[in-house]
Amino acid sequence: MSDSLVQTDPRRWKALVFIALAQLMVVLDATIVNIALPSAQKALGISDGDRQWVITAYTLAFGGLLLFGGRIADLVGRKRMFVIGLLGFAGASALGGAAVNTDMLLGARALQGAFGAMLAPAALSLLSVMFTDAKERAKAFGVYGAIAGGGAAVGLILGGLLTEHLNWRWTLFVNVAFAVVAVAGALTVVKEPAGTRNRSGLDIPGVLLATLGLVSLVYGFTRAESNGWSAGSTIGLFVAAVVLLGAFVTVESRVGHPLLPMRVLMDRNRGGIYLSLGLAVIGMFGLFLFLTYYLQLIKGYSPVTTGLAFLPMVAGMITGSTQIGARLMTRVAPRWLMGPGFLLGAVGMLLLTRITVTSSYAGVVLPGMILLGLGLGTAFMPAMSLATYRVQPRDAGVASAMVNTSQQVGGSIGTALLNTIAASATTAYAASHHAASAAAGKALAAQGMVHGYSVAIWWAVGILTVSSTLAFTLINTGHQGGGPIVAGGGKEDEQQLSVPVIAH
Predict the structure, then answer these.
(1) What is the DSSP string of 194-259?
(2) Where does the record place the Major facilitator superfamily (MFS) profile domain (predicted)?
(3) 241 lies in which domain range?
(4) Rounded to two decimals, what is the model's pTM?
(5) 1 lies in a domain?
(6) Could you say which residues of the chain have pLDDT below 70?
(7) Do 296 and 397 lie in a common domain?
(8) Domain termination residue (choose one: 241, 258, 275)
């Protein structure tokens, strides 16, 4: 095997900066608009019924097109799709910021999601083929994992600052600045290793089935939140998702050049990553929603103060990812980072179940946030790396897309499922308690709301515990140390890289 196959790009660390910036832009966009939504609704006259579509249009396009985006990156080149995704995302963001009516904003949000689905897998797969040395890979994925975990909270902070001090439109315009810097960096320092593309034909039936199936699944959870789990439209969407995704698996096991090769999905360790990571995101995204409402509606925090209140969790994620996960990844098996990490996150959630109307931020919320951030940061980092570790170079894009898909679908499920649980618990609380006066009624409403949050967070504790159990039982590989991961594309490389990670 030639030395050129393992040669690394001297500009890879500069490239990491711009790849991380692009990832931050995509991740924070999932929450930055949430803070600005009330202002945007008022300015454009968006109805309450259409309000959710400002979020849903983005998540549907993003979640539905991720696998297609990952496969296109493998086919035409990750750097090319990275740049196209950035430019498209910037254009869609500018369109949304300049929106003069509801339709224009919703269309722009859908375009953002579509270009985000091209950008996110390309970014992660670029890292997987550019950083092949085990120790360097640990540092690079430490940075990436911290951004992937903490970006949503950064979005809350930035969204609050821009909405309060400028205008809701700047929550979209700000992406143009991110994208311009990232494109300039990508064109100058990002270099995709040669011989890592997958030039086989595009699986059109697979693309259609995967896209429609994922859109049905994500939209089903959105409808469950607004219409209820037993509504005909909700059940119909879930049935359609099962049928379409079942047909997708059948097609992928039979076609010559599948969109999602079963060798990627059926690897025990990668399958464990996708499942445990998706479950963890369910709990995490639900918590963002409840804590935002709790701090603003119950504790009376402003949007900016609410965003700043999330900073300790972001700091915990960065510390867990870069100082614990990255330092131990080359010496400790992933299960011993992911399992305890998710469990520590569950302990943080457990503390947060103690919130009451009168509980203090410093006494209850802060310690819970710090433990949650440390735990998830420690777990996310090796998960991101292992998901693409020793995968065949031609499959790097689609393996990366599966990581993003598990997170996106997990986020949609978490928001809908836990919000529904909280609402039901709040309704039950109100039905079982009676207020003697208007003032008492107001206090009762606040108590019922917090009770609902607490019940939902208990579910999140259970979900993270299951995630930890899956990480311990399914992921059985050794640590990600050792020699370089060869970024080649020949037969010899395929034989070496197609096996699961070898224990050291």
Answers:
(1) TT----SPP-HHHHHHHHHHHHHHHHHHHHHHHH-TTSHHHHHHHHHHHHHHHHHHHHHTTSSS-S
(2) 15-480
(3) 203-258
(4) 0.76
(5) no
(6) 1-10, 48-49, 51, 134, 145, 148-150, 152-153, 193-201, 225, 286, 393-394, 396-397, 435-439, 478-504
(7) yes
(8) 258
